[in-house]
Design a protein that fits this description.
By secondary structure, this protein is mainly beta. It is about 10% helix and about 40% strand. Bound molecules: zinc ion. The site of zinc ion (ZN) has 5 residues, from loops.
């Protein structure tokens, strides 16, 4: 028997900068026209996704991680390592920074730091994001922040559909209005807000964290290194977006039938376009699921795009006896990689 694919029910967040595209574009049943975030694959206590179907239906991802670690290749760690969000920024998000693991452990009750990355699903013409700043050193950074010299301080860059950005801890950043982004990040919610455009929420400005920000922001700014590479195989195009200490992220496009082996501890999959089938099950844009360890061969079929993330390779060797149905059939492994496909479910 093949292990089940774990389909998840997303959690939604209403925020002052949110919009309605998670409903209009992704087809989700959103709670209001200020829905900024879909926590698509999350075991975080502030938005712990529930399993939709199968033998684990109704269970939260955090509990599944605790009780059935075998589904995740017996990966180590006291919490699910990643958090996948789809973000609809109708207005600008606050200018912010995240600490690294060391700073967060010391100052935030043993929490994790946050490395995150953005895949731009869509954006308005002339949309921009904030990444980095223009201070030459820590002293100038402190002067610019305390003096509120935002125009001079903040480094804004234009953004286009399909762009990808890796945001390391200590990097000043903000998603700006008119962008729809899929974010893959460490499972952490520690954010230091530097500047919030003097906006009010329920009549009050949101809390700022000036001291922590000055401590945490690196100066001068250095752009994260990441080079995108593409692998074409059969009816799949696999684009590696980033490999870092915490995650690897790929965009996969499938046009037709394709086979791939699941060789990682587990795979997070978010469908970002089109539709199709995986091992006979219908999948389409907006679906989020986890392919468990030792799933074996993924049979993909359709016309679809997805963002896939994983942590490390599985330590134990992939064992064919777990997948008796496949015994004797030579499946082409994707040089240590995996999947994608295409179809119709709407
Ligand atoms: Zn962030």
């Amino acid at each position: 028997m093949k292990r089940e694919i774990i389909f998840l029910e997303p959690a939604f967040k209403q925020v002052i900068w949110g919009g309605n595209k998670l409903g209009a574009d992704f087809g989700y049943d959103i709670p209001g026209d200020n829905t900024g975030e879909c926590w698509a694959i999350s075991a975080h206590p502030k938005g712990d996704c529930k399993v939709i179907s199968g033998q684990y239906a109704g269970m939260n991802l955090s509990r599944l991680w605790d009780k059935h670690r075998e589904l995740f290749g017996n990966a180590k760690g006291d919490r699910y390592p990643l958090l996948i969000k789809i973000i609809d920024a109708k207005q600008d998000l606050s200018i912010q920074v995240h600490p690294d693991d060391k700073y967060a452990a010391e100052h935030e009750n043993g929490s994790l730091g946050k490395t995150e990355c953005w895949y731009v699903l869509d954006c308005d013409e002339n949309a921009a994001v904030v990444i980095g700043h223009n201070a030459r050193d820590k002293a100038e950074l402190e002067k610019m922040i305390r003096g509120k010299h935002w125009g001079e301080f903040i480094r804004e860059i234009p953004v286009h559909k399909g762009d990808f950005f890796q945001i390391e801890p200590g990097c000043l950043h903000a998603i700006k209005g008119g962008t729809l982004i899929l974010e893959t990040q460490q499972n952490s919610d520690i954010t230091y807000r530097v500047y919030d455009y003097d906006r009010l929420q329920n009549g009050k400005p949101r809390e700022l964290h000036i001291e922590q920000s000055i401590e945490v922001i690196k100066a001068p700014f250095e752009a994260a290194q990441c080079s995108r590479s593409v692998l074409r195989q059969d009816n799949m195009m696999i684009e590696k977006l980033v490999d870092c200490e915490y995650y690897s992220v790929e965009k996969i496009d499938v046009t037709g039938k394709a086979l791939a082996e699941q060789k990682h501890s587990f795979l997070n999959v978010s469908m970002i376009g089109g539709a199709g089938r995986i091992n006979g099950m219908e999948i389409c844009k907006g679906k989020n699921f986890i392919i468990p360890a030792r799933y074996g061969t993924m049979e993909l079929d359709g016309d679809m795009s997805m963002i896939v993330s994983y942590t490390e390779e599985m330590e134990e060797k992939y064992d064919k006896t777990d997948n008796k149905n496949d015994a004797g059939k030579e499946r082409k492994a994707l040089s240590g990689r995996y999947m994608s496909s295409h179809g119709y479910c709407r």
